[in-house]
Amino acid sequence: MLTNLRRAIFSTPGKIIALIVLVIIAVAFGMADISGVGGGAASSSALVTVGDKKLTEQELQDRLKNALDRIRQEQPMLDMTQFVNTGGFEQVLDQVINGMALEEYALQQGMTVSKASIDGQIASLPAFQGFDGKFSQQRFDDLLKQQNITADQVRADFRRETLVQWLVGPTIGASQVPTQLALPYASLLLERRKGLVGYVPIGAIDPGKAPTAAEIEGFYKKNTARYTLPERRVVRYAIVRPEQFAETAKATDAEIAAAYKANAAQYAASTRRNLAQIIVADENAAKTIAAKVKGGTSMADAAKAAGLAPSTIDNAEKAAFARASSDAIANAAFAADQGAVVGPLKSPLGWHIVRVEGIEQVAGKTLDQVRSELADEITKRKEAEALADLRAKIDGAIADNSTFDEAVAEAKLKAETSAPLFADGRAAMDGEAPDPALAQIATAGFAMETGDDPQLAPIGQDGGFALVKTERVIPAAPRPLAEIRDQVTADFIRDRQLQGARKAASAILAKLNKGTPMAQAIQESGLRLPPPQPLDASRGQLSQMGNQLPPPVRLMFSMAEKKAKMTAAPQGGGYWIVWLEDIEEGNAKGNDALIAQTRGQLGQLVGNEYVEQFAAAARKAVKVERNEAAIARLKAQLGGQATGGN
C-alpha cells in the first residue's frame, strides 16, 4: 500500500498536475470538504509567508485533507497518519508554496485576472450548475455554505490557478527534443534480455514447531503496525429519500387533467414528414435547381450539378423545421402533398428547395392513454419539491444553530447511529462492501470532527440526502493480542518460513554467482522447488505492461550480464532468483515511428522538468519565509508523533 501511495503522490505527472491545479483542486473536484482535520482548532499563525500572503496551519490542514480524500478514492483505508508518514505532508506543502510563489511572481510582473474571467470559469463548473445545465446562484451559495468557505476565497483560488496556468503553460510547451537525443533512448526500448528465474516459495520451508507464548507476544509487539486498525468513526445520521414522500406526492385527477391540458399540443394529432432540402445562396441558381427537380430530376442529381448535396430530415415536426428555416417555408412544406417540391423560398440561410419524401400521420393521445405517464411525472416532480423543501428546512435549522437531535425532531426523521465505521463505510476490516448510502455517510463523517455542526450529505443519484453528525472518533490502534492470537500465530509461522525461504534463496544465489548452473543450484538446496523458467523480454515490453510487469522481469533489466540477483515475491510468498544470461542491444536507426514516439515522451518529461525548474526559480525570486518549528510541530501532530506541550 505504501508503495502505491508514494507512486500516486510522487509520480511526475502527479506533481505537474498538482503544480498547475494547486489550491483550486478543492473546487474543481466537486467542492470536496475542507474542514480541519486536527483534534481541535488549528493555530492561525503563519507556517509560510510569501510576499504579503500567509499559509496558516488550518489552511495547510485543509489542503492535506483534500489530498487524502483524493487518494482515498483508490485506497479507502488510508488515514492521515499513514499519509503524512509516507511523504504526503511534504508533497502537499511544496505544492502550496509553489502556488503561492508563482502567484506572487506573476503579480510582480504585472499580470492580472479580471473578475469577469474568474466568474466565467466558476459558472462553467458542473458543480455549480442546476438541473438545466446553467449556473445556479442558489447551488453556488449552498455548496459554499456547506464547505464553510466564501465566494472571495473561491475567486482567489481561481485567480491563482489562472495565473499559474499562464506562467507554466508556455513552459510545458517548450519541449522540443532532437532526433539525435531520442535515438539512443529509442534503441534502448529494443534491447532484449534473456535469462532464467527460480522460485523458493514459503510452502517449501518446514514451518517448524509451534511457537511459544513468549515468541507470539514478542512477534506481536515487533509488528504492532501490522495489526493496527485504521481510524474509525461512529456517525449519527438520518436519511431522506424521494420515496418517503410517495404517499403525499401522489398525483390527483385534477393535477393530471391540468397537465394534459397544459400540454395539449404534445398529445394532439400531428403530422411528421421526411424532407429533402437544398439551400442555395443565389436566387437564380435556386430557381434553376427547383425547375430541374420539378421536371423529374432527382434532388441529388440537381444539387450535384450545382456542386451541392441535399440534406435529409427524417420525422420532421413542423415547429422544429420552422425554427431551422422559417415559418413560411415550414407552412409550405407541411401543406404540400407527398412528392411535391416547394420553393425556392428565402430564409436567413439562403434559398430553400424542399421536396416532401414521405408523410406520416401521428394519432393523438387521449387523457386515459397518457394518464399513467402524467401521473409518474407529477409524482416525481412533487417528490423532488418536497425533498427540496425539507432540505431547505433542515439547512435553515442548522444555520440557526439547531443540534442534530433538534433538526431531526423538527423534520420528523428517524435518527440512527452507526457501528464504528472505517472510511469506506465497512464495519469490519474483512467485511463485505457496505450499502452505498452508508459508504457516502461514512465519507461525510470522516470529513467532519465531533465538534462540527451536522451537515447534509447527498445519498444516491435520486436527490436523496442524509443529515450527518460525527458522534465519536476512534483513533487508529492495534487490535488486542487475545482477539487475534490465531492470526498472529499464523503470521509468526509464515514469517519463519519466509526467513527460511530467504536463506535458501541466498544460498542458491551465491552458487549461481560462482558459476553453478541454476538447475543444479536448486537441486542442491535439498528443497522441493519448481524447476527454473526461461525469461525473454524486450525493454519496450516493460513500458507497455506498466504495473503488471512481473518483478523478476523488472529485476532482469537492472542487472549486469552473467550475474544473479534475488527479489521478494508479493505478499510474502517467497523469493525469486533471477539469472541474466544475455543482453541483445537494440538499434532504432531507421525506425522513424519509434523515434517519433520516443521524442514525444521525452518532450513531455523535458516540459515537466522545465515547469519544476521554473517553479524553483520563482521561489528564489520572491521572498519565501518558512516557520520550520511550526511546520515540524504540525507534521508531528498529524503523523501521530506529537508528544504534547508547546
Automatic annotation (TrEMBL):
Pfam families: Rotamase_2 (PF13145), SurA_N_3 (PF13624). The keyword tRNA-binding does not apply. Its main location: membrane. It is found in: Cell inner membrane. InterPro entries: PPIase_dom_sf, PPIase_PpiC, PpiD_chaperone, Trigger_fact/SurA_dom_sf. It is a single-pass type II membrane protein. This is Parvulin-like PPIase. It comes from Sphingomonas suaedae.
